[in-house]
Amino acid sequence: MTTTTPEQLFHPAVRPLLEQITGRPGDGLRVAIAAPGGYGKSAVLGALERCYRDAGVDVVDAATLLSGGANPDAAVLIDDAHQLSESALHRLGDLAAGGLPRLVLTHRTRPRSATLKTLTESMEPVLLSPLDAAQVRRFTAALTGESPSTAIAAKLHLRTGGVPRFIERLITGTARASQEFRADLEALDPDVLRFLVASEAGAGRNLDLLCSLLDTDRAGVSAIIDDARATGMLGTDGELVPLAEEAVRTLSAVDRRLDVLQQLVELQLRHEQPVLELATSLLGTGIAGVMVAAGFETAAYEALPLDATLASTLFEAAAEAGRPAGELASGWARAAALSGDLDTALRLSDGLLTRDDPAERAVGATVAATVLAHRGELTRCAELYQWSADGSSLAFAAIGLFGTGKAESARALLAAPAPRAVPTLLAGAATRMAEGVGDSVSGSATDALSTLLGAAAMLEPAGTSALLPDAPAALAAIVALHSGELRLAESVLTPALAAGTGGKLLAVRQRLLLGWTAMTAGELGIAASQAQVVRETTAKLEPRDELFLTAMELGLARRNSDIPGIRRAWENAFDAVMRHRMNLFTLLPLGELVIAAARCGEHPRLSRHLEQARTLLAELGNPPLWTVSLHWSELHAAITMEDNAAAERHLAALAGTADFSHYSAILFGAARSWLAVLGGTADPQEVVATAGELHDLGLRWDAARLAGQAAIRTSDRKAMVMLLEAARQFQGRSNSGNTGNAESANAAADASILSEREQEVARLVVDGLTYKQAGDKLFISGKTVEHHMARIRAKLGAGDRRELLATLRELLDAPNRVEG
Question: Residue 194, SS3?
Answer without folding.
Answer: helix
